[in-house]
């Protein structure tokens, strides 16, 4: 099922600016018991992005369509895409028409269950993230850096790929955020210049603080990766995967990671 501005459909205008320029945003939302999970966090990020891109969205219609799709799905995934809509040729937003809302439902991805219990190995990507503070943190439609990074490996032993910026600072994985247990507490990379500010990242930062184990947002260098005692990646579909190996480095599936994993499960399962 796919809704386009509230109507069942499968065709888009060829002059849509999301197609032409990546002029828009998206959210990928897990559904359980016919309800979208972490919806407040998803909408909060979408509002930040809409404000930054100056998109005037119909928030009441958008939320109504999300709830309708969730009720139809029961269990699964909703992908929400919003674009600036159709517009004139060229980069100017002058003349752009009504923003376009696309709401699609699909089944949950079938991730191997041992990734939760035994952890995953990372591939070290050579593709570097560019610095652009105006877009940093947003889940905008231009994800070519992630497409290039994900194309670097085919070996199924790698569940995710580590991505750095042009200064070799650790930023994120191709589809998830990172947390490192460093000097006895959690840190997560600063995303003020690049990367996606994930919904599960924000949720865990809030909840871990409530549990008395606060997270520091810092610039993470390669030495910290070598020195950390635990490491995990997270997103709003699968929750938390412990990271156990990369480039000859090894980490245990530690108790702090397992505690974070349980917090994520409470929100998703």
Automatic annotation (TrEMBL):
Catalyzed reactions per annotation: 4-amino-4-deoxychorismate = 4-aminobenzoate + pyruvate + H(+)
Co-factor requirement: pyridoxal 5'-phosphate
Broad class of enzyme this protein falls into: lyase
Enzyme Commission number, as recorded: 4.1.3.38
InterPro entries on file: Aminodeoxychorismate_lyase_IV, Aminotrans_IV, Aminotransferase-like, BCAT-like_C, BCAT-like_N, Class-IV_PLP-Dep_Aminotrnsfr
Any one cellular-component term (Gene Ontology): cytosol
Subunit structure: Homodimer.
BP-aspect Gene Ontology terms: 4-aminobenzoate biosynthetic process; folic acid biosynthetic process
Pfam families associated with the record: Aminotran_4
An example molecular function term from Gene Ontology annotations: 4-amino-4-deoxychorismate lyase activity
Family from the record: Belongs to the class-IV pyridoxal-phosphate-dependent aminotransferase family.
Pathway assigned in UniProt: Cofactor biosynthesis; tetrahydrofolate biosynthesis; 4-aminobenzoate from chorismate: step 2/2
Keywords assigned: Folate biosynthesis, Lyase, Pyridoxal phosphate
Matching CDD domains: ADCL_like
Species annotation: Pseudomonas jilinensis
Signal peptide as annotated in the record: none
The name this protein goes by in its record: Aminodeoxychorismate lyase
Keyword flag Lyase: yes
């Amino acid at each position: 099922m796919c809704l386009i501005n509230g109507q069942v459909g499968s065709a888009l205008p060829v002059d849509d600016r999301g197609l032409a320029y990546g002029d828009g945003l998206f959210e990928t939302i897990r559904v359980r018991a016919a309800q979208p999970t972490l919806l407040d966090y998803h909408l909060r990020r979408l509002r930040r992005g809409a404000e930054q891109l100056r998109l005037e969205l119909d928030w009441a219609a958008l939320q109504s369509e999300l709830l309708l799709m969730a009720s139809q799905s029961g269990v699964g995934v909703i992908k929400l895409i919003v674009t600036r809509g159709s517009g004139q040729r060229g980069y100017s937003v002058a003349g752009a028409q009504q923003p376009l809302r696309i709401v699609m439902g699909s089944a949950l991805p079938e991730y191997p269950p041992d990734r939760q219990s035994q952890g995953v190995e990372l591939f070290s990507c050579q593709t570097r993230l560019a610095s652009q503070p105006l877009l940093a943190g947003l889940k905008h439609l231009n994800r070519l850096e992630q497409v290039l990074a994900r194309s670097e490996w085919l070996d199924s032993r790698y569940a995710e790929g580590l991505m750095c910026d042009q200064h070799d600072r650790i930023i994120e994985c191709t589809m998830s955020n990172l947390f490192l247990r460093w000097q006895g507490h959690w840190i997560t990379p600063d995303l003020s210049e690049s990367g996606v500010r994930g919904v599960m990242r924000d949720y865990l930062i809030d909840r871990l603080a409530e549990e008395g184990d606060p997270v520091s947002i810092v610039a993470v260098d390669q030495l910290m990766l070598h020195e950390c005692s635990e490491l995990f990646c997270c997103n709003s579909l699968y929750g938390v995967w412990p990271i156990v190996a990369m480039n000859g480095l090894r980490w245990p599936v530690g108790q702090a990671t397992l505690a974070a994993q349980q917090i994520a499960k409470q929100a998703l399962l």
